[in-house]
Design a protein that fits this description.
This protein is of the alpha+beta class. It has 5 domains: 78 residues; 90 residues, OB fold (Dihydrolipoamide Acetyltransferase, E2P); 205 residues, no CATH class; 48 residues, no CATH class; 187 residues, Metallo-beta-lactamase, Chain A, CATH 3.60.15.10. It is 51% helix and 19% strand. The protein contains 21 helices and 23 strands. The strands form 4 sheets. Strands 16-17-18-19-20-21-22 form a 7-stranded mixed sheet, covered by helices on one side. A 6-stranded mixed sheet has the order 15-14-13-12-11-23. The chain has a 5-stranded mixed barrel with strand order 1-3-5-7-6. The longest helix is centred in the middle third of the chain and has 35 residues.
Length: 704
């Protein structure tokens, strides 16, 4: 086997991804097919001689078994024991809080739950800011719930807690080492904001520290132009850090062991400073393998290093694939490692070395451009399936935007790092000059993002079914070319062109076919509903749920939509500061749910929204051509629903109300906590309808 770590590691990550996101019956089919494949490879002599075939099927089986055991024997017992329990918790704060003053998220590690020693990572939501530092002990009473969101599970957080009560804070007698790292991070953040413009400082802290982009408009421009990867700490950042050390001090130290040790320590410190992001850990592992290969004078293999990083992360936490950023990072790196060099060689094969200095400089510039294009293009193409499967969107301008930003981002990082030095440790005139240049480069990067994001169809929807068909078509095209390539020249170029034509034509066809379509998103909520209607003309949020997790899910839905947030419709009685913060004041429509008023809203000249109140309960009916959706409140009576609205294609409810047997529908979406959701599904078990619990965000299309 030429690359065993690549085969084992990448196969393990792929199988765990399927196990994490697919239904259980799909996992069983995969295990069964792998078992049959293993038997066939062991039985057939020609296949048995090639160890990669039995190893491939064996890795699939082991991965499925490992994931199932981890889920059933470790994760589920924790979630089952505490889900829905109102518990008294004592925990230690692990990191600085996230969020705003009126809704904060704290990552803590429990000491005890109900006076019983338990060591679990927990996400704590509060409705107010708690003044505490890393290492402090928090004591609070909270309602515990299982954490089903992939990002939580990837961080080994299997429970989340909500509390609106007072939290007692006990200062730590001895601070952990990470406390001083957080203080350094805050000092760097303060230094950057003190010398740079607000937008540039926001970008700089995101690039250097892994902070989120707080300005929604900037983040939207980066997302639509395909540049969000520059604010995710990854291999790009580590390469700049190590290159900076090598150019400044590394060449002066002749001892390669000391150089390697210092490089490793610098990388570890940077990982600690940025919070040990999984993409940066992946890059660090690959870098450490490369350093080790050079140290012991062995030939390094990037694909094997990538597989080793995948295997190490998956062994430490099989749920690491729940973080979509990890999948994007590995997909992009895989594309660069496997396809970048062949594409670069194909582009530059006609660039022959020229001795004349003038032409040599042109040759060098052309090769640099070809290298940047090959790296960007292969990374983008390999992340397309992940983007479509998880976000349903692709950026058609990503390659061009990255070609312009790539030369600037390294200089921006270097100058921002100089600006991060506290003012009293620097030469004021020099730092002011550096800040001036850094502001220019930062504004240039943001201008490129804004310029490309404003392009028509820069960021478009894409159906995952089409992408799967496209991947199959590409594999088929290259497989055919592989068998006939001896009889023809230039087939690889023809294959690339055909693949791109299929992708572009398919994407445009999907855009045209989806112009008259409404997508309905239903976010999980314990009580009430959080529903987003999205079309090419805009978005409407129907909001009445009032819990932090629902607000977070709603924000994530709105962030992933192509069109800007346009309107929120909510009850005057239920609206909170968290909810109103999602939209501008002029984009909020509030109604009174006490005076029994009925009103009708026509959205985009095609969707009719009826909202009517009866006895304090608010009902919503959405109709688009011949399709209708009925949304029920937490309490009420179906007799209050007009006769012509009792028959709907989709029923969305968060609990049982009176006389629900009078309803007719084809699909049932049951929201609310586990007990209420299960009760609704059980109530209609004798009906032949499609029923599903909204444990995570659900979306469906209504085509006009």
């Amino acid at each position: 086997m030429r690359r065993p770590l690549a085969l084992i590691g990448l196969t393990t990550m792929l199988v765990l991804t399927v196990c994490f996101y697919a239904d259980f019956y799909v996992v069983k089919w995969i295990f069964g097919l792998a078992f049959i494949g293993l038997l066939v490879t062991l039985a057939v002599k020609k296949l048995r001689k090639k160890p990669e075939f039995p190893a491939f099927f064996a890795v699939i089986m082991i991965s499925v078994i490992g994931f199932t055991m981890f889920t059933e024997l470790y994760v589920k017992p924790i979630q089952t024991e505490f889900d829905g329990e109102n518990a008294e918790v004592t925990a230690v704060l692990l990191d600085e809080p996230q969020g705003s003053d009126n809704r904060c998220l704290y990552t803590v590690k429990t000491k005890s739950i109900n006076n019983v020693e338990k060591s679990l990572r927990l996400s704590l939501y509060t409705n107010r800011n708690v003044h505490c530092q890393v290492g402090d002990t928090l004591t609070f009473t909270a309602e515990l719930e299982r954490a089903d969101f992939g990002k939580y599970l990837a961080d080994k957080i299997y429970l989340r807690a909500y509390t609106y009560e007072h939290i007692e804070v006990e200062e730590a007698e001895q601070r952990p080492f990470y406390y001083y790292i957080v203080k350094l991070r805050q000092s760097i953040r303060h230094s950057i904001y003190s010398v740079l413009d607000a937008d540039t400082a926001n970008l700089a802290t995101a690039v250097l520290l892994g902070d989120g982009i707080s300005d929604g408009e900037i983040y939207e421009d980066l997302r639509r132009s395909g540049l969000t990867h520059i604010v995710v700490v990854s291999g790009l950042h580590l390469s700049v850090i190590t290159l900076l050390y090598t150019k400044s001090f590394g060449k002066r130290l002749k001892n390669r062991y000391i150089n390697a040790l210092i490089t490793v320590l610098i990388v570890l410190f940077f990982l600690c400073l940025t919070g040990f992001g999984k993409s940066s850990i992946r890059a660090a592992i690959m870098l450490f393998v490369l350093i080790a290969s050079k140290l012991f004078k062995r030939e390094g293999d990037s694909l094997n290093s990538l597989g080793f990083a995948a295997l190490l992360l998956c062994i430490c936490n099989p749920y690491v694939v729940g973080d979509v950023g990890v999948l994007l990072s590995f997909s992009a790196t895989f594309g660069i490692v496997v396809f970048s060099k062949p594409l670069y060689e194909f582009i530059t094969k006609r660039l022959k070395p020229v001795r004349e200095s003038y032409y040599k400089r042109i040759n060098k510039r052309l090769r640099f451009f070809a290298s940047s294009f090959a790296t960007t293009f292969t990374a983008v193409m390999c992340t397309v399936p992940v983007n479509v499967l998880f976000f349903g969107k692709i950026s058609l301008v990503q390659v061009f935007a990255n070609l312009l930003v790539a030369p600037m981002i390294k200089w921006f990082m270097l100058l921002a790092a100089i600006c991060a030095v506290p003012y009293y440790f620097s030469v004021p005139i020099f730092k002011d000059f550096v800040a001036f240049i850094c502001n220019i480069i930062g504004k240039a990067i943001l201008y490129v993002a804004r310029f490309f994001s404003d392009f028509p169809m820069a960021y478009v929807k894409a159906d995952y079914k089409f992408v799967i068909l496209w991947i199959v078509a590409v594999i088929t095209i290259f497989a055919v070319a592989y068998f006939i390539r001896r009889n023809g020249k230039g087939l690889h170029l023809i294959c690339i062109v055909m693949s791109m034509l299929i992708f572009i034509s398919g994407s445009l066809g999907h855009i045209i076919a989806s112009r008259n379509k409404i997508t309905v998103y239903v976010a999980p909520a314990k009580y009430g509903q959080s529903i987003v209607l999205s079309s090419k003309d805009g978005n409407v949020l129907l909001y009445s749920a009032d819990d932090p997790y629902s607000v977070t899910c709603t924000e994530q839905i709105l962030e992933g939509l192509y069109t800007e947030k346009q309107l929120m419709i909510n009850s005057f009685e239920n609206i909170s500061e968290d909810e109103s913060a999602l939209f501008d004041y002029n984009e909020v429509l509030m109604y009174d749910n006490i005076s029994e008023n009925d009103f009708k809203v026509e959205l985009w000249d095609k969707v009719i929204l009826n909202i009517f109140e009866r006895n304090g309960a608010v009902y919503q009916h959405i109709s688009f051509n011949d399709t209708s959706v009925l949304v029920l409140p937490d309490f009420g009576d179906v007799n209050d629903v007009p006769q012509d609205m009792r028959s709907a294609d989709v029923l969305i409810t968060s609990g049982l109300i009176d006389n629900m047997e009078l309803l007719n529908f084809k699909t049932l979406l049951s929201n609310g906590n586990d007990f209420r959701s299960a009760a609704v599904i059980d109530y209609f078990r004798n009906r032949s309808v499609n029923a599903a619990a909204v444990s995570d965000t659900v979306n469906f299309d209504i085509v006009g």
